[in-house]
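Example S7 (structure tokens).
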């Protein structure tokens, strides 16, 4: 009998492009891919493979970042943020779906990680910053910089004083920033 290859976890999906709800009038889009099947089973495997993912096992979601782009996977949908051109929506969704399918195909080689990780709080991050409001990062305050670290628009490397403080830098890395 011939060995049939396993079907991809995500085969069919429909993509919708929309203005991001959190930034009305923004010059970029968010994309949503709707799936017909529940893909929750792949989430612990993604959590094991993706660096600094935020996984909510009980609520069945996983969020991760790649560059300035955020991805959120839920049982029947994938959302992708910060898409500058319509054609990019299809490209980024397709790449993410391919990666999810590839991880699913390799699940026998991956130990699933059920550890729940959530987004750090602004005040917890602020405690690790110099709190001088020097503006070297390009923002007006350390509080604004802490928020920018969380939403991924800035990196710890954008703050020269943090780069000089190995302990704070290590803690920020532990928080997934």
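Recovered sequence:
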């Amino acid at each position: 009998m011939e060995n049939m290859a396993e079907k991809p976890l995500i085969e069919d999906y429909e993509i919708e492009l929309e203005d991001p709800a959190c930034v009305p009038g923004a010059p970029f889009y968010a994309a949503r891919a709707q799936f017909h099947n529940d893909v929750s089973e792949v989430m612990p495997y993604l959590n094991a493979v993706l660096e600094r993912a935020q996984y909510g096992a009980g609520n069945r979601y996983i969020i991760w970042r790649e560059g300035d782009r955020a991805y959120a996977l839920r049982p029947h949908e994938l959302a992708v943020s910060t898409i500058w051109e319509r054609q990019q929506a299809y490209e980024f969704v397709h790449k993410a779906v391919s990666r999810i399918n590839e991880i699913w195909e390799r699940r026998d080689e991956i130990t699933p990680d059920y550890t729940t990780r959530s987004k750090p709080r602004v005040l917890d991050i602020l405690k690790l910053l110099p709190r001088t409001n020097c503006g070297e990062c390009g923002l007006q305050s350390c509080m604004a910089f802490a928020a920018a670290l969380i939403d991924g628009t800035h990196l710890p490397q954008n703050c020269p004083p943090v780069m000089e403080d190995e302990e704070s830098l290590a803690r920020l890395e532990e928080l997934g920033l």
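Notes on this example. The chain has a mean pLDDT of 86.
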